[in-house]
Amino acid sequence: MSLFLILKLNYLLLCLKVLLVSSLVQLNTKSSSSSSNNNNNIPNIPPSSRVVFVGLDESKFRHPLDRDLTARVQAAPFSQLAQEGLRRTYPLVEEAVRLDLLSSSVKVSRQQLPELYHLLLEACRVLGIYREESSSKDIKIPDLYIQSSSQANAFTLALRGRDAPPIIVVTSSLLDRCSEPEIQAIIGHELGHLKCEHSLYLTLGGLASAPLRSLPFMGGTVDRLLQEWRLAAEYTCDRASLLVAQDSKVVAGALIKLFAGTSKYSMSTDAFVAQCVEYDEKLKSANPLVRMSIQRQQRTHPLPVRRVAELEKWAESTEYANILKSGSSA
Prior knowledge:
The chain has helices at residues 3-20, 64-75, 79-104, 114-126, 172-177, 180-196, 198-209, 219-245, 248-260, 269-284, 288-295, 304-315, 318-326, and strands at residues 51-52, 106-107, 143-147, 154-157, 167-171, 328-329. The protein is α+β, with helices and mostly antiparallel strands. The protein has one domain (16-329). The strands form 2 sheets. The protein has a 4-stranded mixed beta sheet, with helices on both faces. A two-stranded antiparallel ribbon has the order 1-6. Helix 6 (180-196) crosses helix 8, helix 6 crosses helix 9 (248-260) and helix 9 runs antiparallel to helix 12 (304-315). The longest helix has 27 residues, at 219-245.
């Protein structure tokens, strides 16, 4: 393997780690007698009271900044060539991760933790990733793994349109902390990363902007923009989570349990939103040096209070209401 390819892989791994650190949760099993993409092996999903979104375009629920920067990357010169290069390199990273998970985690399937398997299938159906009547080989149910960890976390490793199914990992700590509807909302968040191909476009954005970061007065601006994009991608996936749950209290409940680190006591979503208002008021009146220090902090995810407040705001928006109206009965 050439030194150039090794360096390229190392950079790709670094970009992926940024995206994979504490995201908010998928699966499929491979039968010994057939391929994991064979829809004939997928059991029927009992109907639910939620609507499903057949052919849902991810641009409909993307956060505006995520939508704008993704479109810019897609329209950039040589974008298709760069995408193809990453899609060819990516399997090496994915193969290593998949083997590690198979050796040290529990893979969910119809036989193993079938309750979680059902939650995944239903979430895929709601977001239009999977349809029982479709025989398309491009529709892949992700592989869902449960990993033992004291850290409450979930992440995805995925590119659409590849032979191998995407990967979603949920840690045991997060699983123990949440109810089944909340777990499904977490899976919906991770499906949002898959549907929007954040692994691909955030990596392309980082590679494309690398030369600009060495220019005077440009490096800081570019880094801030990339960080804002990563944060916007998390807001996008919280929206995907809401489209799966179709109840903002369920999604907020999962987020609050993640932030608080416990599910022992009942917590109020409304009180947490009020906490966000309190934070904004105190931030405005804070010492300028303190405020600047907070604003310059490097984060892989938005502030907890921001996430819940943004979620509740979008749940009351016309945009969300229109998407719900476009859905059909399960």
